[in-house]
Design a protein that fits this description.
Layout (H helix, E strand, L loop, with lengths): L13 E4 L10 H27 L6 H18 L2 H10 L3 E3 H34 L4 H4 L2 H27 L8 E2 L6 H6 L6 H34 L4 H29 L8 H24 L3 H12 L7
Parallel strand pairs: 1-3
Antiparallel strand pairs: 1-2
């Protein structure tokens, strides 16, 4: 996928990941903490995915989107946490050039995918609340499938330019990445090449992805809020708001974390802050999503009981 092109003054084929050694003298407690969190991410999201996959009653666009979000959370966490756990366990904090570039590519890919997926889910909630009688005609399973294919495909194209540019930078000044995984900002900080074109590409492509997803999400919720406010009964307003409350909570957490992590100039880059917000994205969001979407969802609770008691309608 990537062409490893170091300049003649750079002969290293691997990087050293500092992890949290600049913050904690003893990183051992972090190993147990991150291991428990990773298990929690896997358990929660696999449970959500299995319930949606095995229960025919959950084969609707809303739950299919949620199942994809669960898969995305598993992939996103698994791109970073197993390697981090290995480094903390063995204290061997090296990563090959190819692995570093691949990890960075998939980190950007999964971030872009979540932007688009949350936007499509917002549109789905817009149709469910603003056009409930026409929901299954406007959001058919075919349109749902096409939307998901588009989300996963388009998001895969965005990181290609970043990866190509960074793979051809020179890292002659340092090979120590002050982070716990390979991300754009810490890699640019240790490059002795001119990185202006990479920074410009990052801001431009990030703006295109972020603004397009944000516009669809925001416009959907503007219509949703207007529709809810026009509902006469308090019970009707409560039910309508409950329909989108979980997704709205997830959107606010994701956008808040992403903006804090990516929307800032390189001159204000702080390794400590970057690690903190990256942990929120890598660990907090995948951990919270299964809870946010299922804690008050009656259909999911019924499906979970079927799954754990091994009875109920199963789809093949």
């Amino acid at each position: 996928m990537f062409n490893k092109t170091f300049h003649s003054e750079s002969k290293a084929t691997e990087f050293i990941i500092q992890c949290f050694s600049d913050i904690y003298r003893n990183e051992a407690p972090l190993l147990f903490t991150f291991f428990i969190m990773y298990l929690n991410i896997l358990t929660g999201n696999i449970t959500v995915f299995l319930c949606i996959t095995l229960d025919c009653l959950l084969h609707t666009p809303m739950y299919i989107f949620l199942g994809n979000l669960a898969v995305l959370d598993i992939l996103s966490a698994s791109n970073i946490l197993p390697k981090l756990l290995f480094m903390l366990l063995t204290q061997k904090k090296t990563i090959t050039f190819q692995w570093c570039m691949t990890q960075m590519y998939f980190f950007i890919y999964f971030t872009c995918t979540e932007f688009f997926l949350l936007a499509v889910m917002a549109y789905d909630r817009y149709i469910a609340i603003c056009h409930p009688l026409h929901y299954f005609s406007l959001m058919s399973l075919k349109l749902c499938a096409l939307s998901l294919v588009g989300v996963w495909t388009v998001a895969a194209l965005e990181p290609v330019l970043h990866s190509t540019f960074i793979a051809n930078l020179s890292f002659c000044s340092s090979h120590q990445i002050n982070h716990f995984f390979c991300d754009i900002s810490p890699l640019l900080k240790i490059s002795c090449s001119d990185t202006l074109h990479v920074e410009i590409a990052t801001y431009v492509l990030g703006a295109i992805v972020g603004l397009s997803a944000f516009t669809l999400t925001l416009s959907s919720y503007v219509f949703i809020i207007c529709t809810i406010l026009n509902i006469q009964s308090a019970d009707g307003r409560h039910k309508a708001f409950f329909t989108c409350a979980s997704h709205l909570t997830s959107v606010l957490i994701f956008y808040g974390t992403s903006l804090s992590l990516h929307v800032r100039p390189m001159s204000t880059y702080s390794p400590t802050e970057d690690k903190f917000f990256s942990l929120l994205y890598v660990i907090l969001i995948p951990s919270l999503n299964p809870v946010i979407y299922t804690i008050r969802n009656k259909d999911f609770k019924v499906s979970f009981k079927k799954l754990t008691s091994f009875h109920g309608k199963i789809c093949y």
